Amino acid sequence: MLHNRFYTITICVLMVTTGSLNTLCAKWADNFKVDGEHFDHPFLQAFCMFIGELLCMGAYLIILGVRKYRWNRTKHDVDSESEPQIPRFNPLLFLIPAISDIISTSVMYIGLTLTSASSYQMLRGALIVCTGLLSIFCLHSTIKAYQWMGMISVVLGLADPIHAWHQICKQPMIAVALTGTTISIAFFNFAGTTVTKNLSATTRTVLDSVRTIVIWAASLPLFGQKFIPLQLIGFALLIFGMFVYNDILIGPWFRQHILPRIYDIPCFGP
Fold first, then answer.
1. What pLDDT digit, counting tens, does each position of 78-111 carry?
2. Does residue 267 share a domain with residue 202?
3. TM segments (predicted)?
4. 121 and 221 in one domain?
């Protein structure tokens, strides 16, 4: 019991920490100047993020290999479990979500180059509202093949990898920041998936909102962001809204204390 509790706390802390580092490393790279120009390559940063997410697949294959090795050493006893294998699935099932993810990530990093890290993270809190509305109107839409080709062409035209590589060669610390982005997103996704599996999706959403405060607090000394007291109210309302949306506050209290009184009224009773 104690081991499970320690593991749960560790995973939650890992999720908040690596999620915060991911945004801070991306903003750190944006602050570097090479030949008088800022490092302004959001598509390269998005590429690094997806490389980091791909590392989770490598970790999964390693764990699967270890399990198969242990299974082979059991000499195939009658009571032994079946051989571990990769579940069969259609890779095309991930095509649309993957393309949508890379577009949204690239757009977010474009926004990060234009604003502070904490403001960027706060605006990501609107994801719940946008996802809820878009899931109603857009899930049945079909994207034509020529539209996918057009978007890929736009991404390739905006990436500018040669200029990015030139700046990285002249300022090696940019490579350090990009590496931090890649590694932190790998651990963040691992921790987030583990939290969703062992706890709940609600817990993951709440923890994701906590890193907003961590990023804001770290941005003050690291990036010289100006302290605005009004932001504290904004953070409080943001987190409060997250808690209400995920039925942690207001809802349970209303059902426990208010609804029973309403049902006691004769005209409202069941």
1. 555 666 666 676 777 778 878 887 787 777 777 7
2. no
3. 7-24, 44-66, 92-110, 122-139, 172-193, 230-254
4. yes
Model confidence pLDDT, tens digit, residues 187-234: 888 888 888 888 777 777 777 777 777 888 888 887 777 777 777 787
Q: Are residues 17 and 135 both part of a single domain?
A: yes
Tally of domains within the chain:
2
Task: Residue 184: give the domain boundaries.
Answer: 2-76+83-227
